[in-house]
Amino acid sequence: MATKARLNGFQIWNMCFGFFGIQIGFGLQNANTSRIFQSLGVEVNHLAILWIAAPATGLLVQPVIGYLSDKTWGRLGRRRPYFFWGAILTSAALLVMPNAPALWIAAAALWVMDASINITMEPFRAFVGDNLPDEQRASGYAMQSFFIGAGAVLASALPWMLTHWFSVSNVAADGGVPPSVHIAFYAGAAGLLLSVLWTVFTTREYSPEQLAAFEASERALKGQAPSAVGEAPTRTVRAYLVGGLVWTLAGLLLAAAIFAARLEKELYVLAGMIGLFGLAQLVAGGLRRADRTANGFSEVVEDLFRMPATMKQLAVVQFFSWFGLFAMWIYTTPAVAAFHYHAADTASRAYNDGADWVGVLFAIYNGVAALAALVIPLIARAVGRKASHALCLGLGGLGLAAFPLIREPGLLWIPMIGVGFAWSSILSAPYSILSGALPAAKMGVYMGIFNFFIVIPQLLAATILGLLLKAFFGGEAIWALVLGAGGMLAAAACVFRVRDVGEPRASPTESASPEALSKA
Predict the structure, then answer these.
(1) pTM of the entire structure?
(2) Exposed site from 22, 149, 295, 458, fewest CB < 10 Å?
(3) How far is 289 from 307, CA to CA, in rounded Å?
(4) Contact assessment for residue 57 and residue 448, using Cβ atoms and an 8 Å cutoff
């Protein structure tokens, strides 16, 4: 029976090292985007809507890249061409972002940066599922979490390190983006490109034919039908058209209500999300009625409605988890600067000291995440993957909830320990559970669709968080972190509804030769 070869630690290291660079770019974006926007004159209540570029781009890019990478096979393999070109584009965007002379250029640079990061990052999730046998996938995703944490530590702390270790100013003479941030982005661009290229040129991939043989053997071992793809039947034309009409009308009615009541313009994003989901169903229904379904759009929409049960249950967990994370990423800088440093003026020393300290806090939680990636598999082995993930999410929720209770900024590293455990588990546990429930031929597209449930809560957060702060919390950013804590705790509770299709088991005695990957 053909099975995938077990890889040694160095091979798994090479396979995951590119994530170190990806997270350098992602970490610089998370820790400094609000700072750059505020330096260009953006008020705190409007930060969330500007961050919408990131999740909106992921919503569009990841399923497309997943679908394309499933069908790619060439000189660089299946997933690696996307690592290569995505890294080049991301590095270029990192060079542009801190030099933006106007807000619209900064927003456009964020859009390009996030699209490029998604091109590189999405196939990495499928890469682990492609190359590792079931019993090593948890280790593979844990190694990714380690590199994600390590890369983010460097990225988050880099402006602070430049200021305190190398005397680079953290205040711009003209009140714009400080020199320390400029240099951090330039160094990050180089680090990202080099680390991703390391993975591209030190790893190999199985061919589509090999993957099909492995999956057939695995299904035979589990007693499953060889052609099983999803757990739901094919969606009918009527279901597409009726569902599409309902969702489209709901979006239009919500937009009309927002206009009539003169509500905040951010709510149009929510109406647009609802309406676009309806339009997508209408287009898919029309294509099915015309018997024109041999295209990427139809396949992605069909796969969305045929998700395995495990994926649907994990989607709810992801929704609440990422709502909490996005609240933290958007609002920690203004929250800490205002609540703990009593500063709102972005040109002031106090504000920039607070922003630098947030970079250190982000480095701390990412450092904890890197170390937690080594510990969480042991916890999962003892109590199960679901209980382990719920525990980590609970620690993250309690950590965010502690921010308004701690007045001394020097003590804020303590709740970041809980956030670090949550972040590490979010990056590994859902994918470890999910990968065993997905067909190999659709690993990329389903990983891309799974990203919807990361992106949608981010879009929701970008839409409503600013409005909630303005309407109920006097515009105080610290309360956004409390709302994020609620999301984390809700996610922890939902984990127990997930059906884990099986804990890792011992590998079969018959396996593919260790040379299989090198020949692919």
Answers:
(1) 0.73
(2) 295
(3) 22
(4) no
